[in-house]
Amino acid sequence: MAKASDLDVAYVSKLARLNLTDEETQLFQKQLADVLKYAEKLREVDVSHVEATAHAIPIFNVFREDEPRDWFTAQEALSNAPHKANQLFVVTKVVE
Amino acid sequence: MSRSDLPALTIADLQSLLRRKEISPREVLDALCARIETLEPKIDAYLSIDFQAAAKEADKVDVDLPLGGVPIAIKDIINVKGQPCTCGSKILANYRSPYDATVIQKLRAAGAVPFGKTNMDEFAMGSSTENSSVKVTRNPWDMSRVPGGSSGGSAAAVAADSAFGGLGTDTGGSIRQPASLCGVVGVKPSYGRVSRFGLVAFASSLDQVGPLTKTVRDSALIMNAMAGHDPQDSTSLNEPVPDYTKNLGRDLKGMRLGLPKEYMIEGIDPEVKSAVDVALKQLQSLGAEIVDVSLPHTDYGIAVYYFLATAEASANLARFDGVRYGYRAKDPKDLLDHYGRTREEGFGAEVKRRIILGTYVLSSGYYDAYYVRAQKVRELIRQDFVKAFEKVDAIVSPTSPVPAFKLGERTADPLAMYLADIFTNTGNLAGICGISVPCGLAKMNGNQPRNDRGSRTLSGLPIGLQILGKALDETHIFQIAHAYEQSTDWHKQRPKV
């Protein structure tokens, strides 16, 4: 199992697209190291014959008919948009 | 009965008055409104209230429907059309729901009137409601203490008679723990029993919506209206919904209740332990047999929970990108700056902490060591319960190891806060159902740290008894909780606010 000291909060915050201040980075580094240290107890458990459980209940593929139904109008879908124009979401420029 | 006494009624009693036409739904709403106006400045349980919209509904509601004319408070993480849904977060401060969650559609169909949204830990991440970005909710039993969390607003409102009943959500204990700390009843339904469509997702494999009420019967009434299959939630179970009131009033003769030896940990407040011991004797006197059971993987619950819940949260909260709804940072210089600053400025500290942990346990090189291993231990925890339920009908324990703690007492130490869920989160991991019912009042000196056993005042802090049942066996935990509740006076105790 990985070691608690492997955690690099500054790197992970980039993966998460979540800017942190230097203060937050340092604080989380310490606090999450404590949490990871606490969780090291999971290493004691023999899981060699156990299947991973993503869900506590046995539901597998769920199908439904592919039928049209009423849903949001464009206006409703755009009702919370932070920036919109011409019935469209306006996003930050992605190409130079 | 005087109008000002109405808010103290249970839902069941309120309904008899409504059906006999002794009062109208509008009068009920007005009386509740007056109560809330008096108490909100002290308790701060609500984030938004829309009495005008509610009054329109109350005026046309059919009181003969199962919840006809009953106002219900809704945790601010469940979408109610036309109302805010902040999730206690700045990132959704200006959001208005364009649709009703399935549970809201079902409650409306049953005649209930949603009228207000309650405070919560941001995105349901917390055990004290202190992680709300908006305000601090106080415990009506002691204004210097937390109401628990994350559904602390709904719990405090019900405890203070500022709501007849409320909805909460429970991912690791977020209904049962605040119910316990506020002296009300709270139910976490089995996973898949209640639709999650329209609930803002925190940890999708663990989240369930459930009721907080003054009595067990009231919770059963809300569950009757809310449970059932929903084609819009592919994890909701297509199983028949029983009448959850049908076993209320039955005795407990022949019932076997398991007491897990692993739950007798150090760190349980002695008053909690003795209240639960007395409750066990009471259950025996009602005909139940108490049986020792073992849940050997209990000690790993918190670690498993914080890996899986944060992993799922990091994925679910990726949707908050400042494009389609929610807060967007000003004048981003490029797309990465847009995402990074939108999320930095929009999320609070606990949410950031959990996104970081969740992203880490899912990241390349750590996925197997943390995430997959946690999923495997989750399976062992689930099997512990399956084995225990071969011997017993239900499992009993304290809901929370301690009564309500002081505001600010645990905010600096995330791990200490996480341990507040030690008796509740394994129920979510295993997908089973659970209820918390009041079982005592701890005598606490309001001015001393919680471990100080010096001079005591008469002010009490509620203690909750947790009853866990098999998946989809809500009927029996309602039966047990109701038999216990009706044989004691704890549910009649109300804080002096």
Strand order of the largest sheet of chain A: 1-2
Largest sheet of chain A: 2 strands, antiparallel
The CATH architecture of chain B can be named as: Alpha-Beta Complex
Principal-axes geometry of chain B comes out as globular
Q: What does the average pLDDT of chain B come to?
A: 95
CATH topology of the domain at 4-44 in chain A: Histone, subunit A
How large is the radius of gyration of chain A? 23 Å
Uncertain stretches of 5 or more adjacent residues of chain B:
446-458
Largest sheet of chain B: 11 strands, mixed
| Portion in helices of chain A | 25-40%
> What gap, in angstroms, lies between the N and C termini of chain B?
21 Å
Q: What is the H/E order of chain B?
A: HHEHEHEHEHEEHEHEHHHHEHHEEH
How would you sum up this structure, described in words?
The complex is a heterodimer of chains A (96) and B (497). Chain A has 3 helices and 2 strands; from the N terminus they run H-H-H-E-E. With 96 residues, chain A is mainly alpha-helical. Chain A has a domain of 41 residues: Histone, subunit A (Orthogonal Bundle). In chain A, strands 1-2 form a two-stranded antiparallel sheet. In chain A, a hairpin with a 2-residue loop joins strand 1 and strand 2. Chain A is flat. Chain B has 497 residues and is of the alpha/beta class. Chain B has one domain: Alpha-Beta Complex (Amidase signature (AS) enzymes). Helices cover 36% and strands 13% of the residues of chain B. The longest helix of chain B has 25 residues. At the A-B interface, helix 1 and helix 2 of A face helix 9, helix 10, helix 11, helix 12 and helix 13 of B.
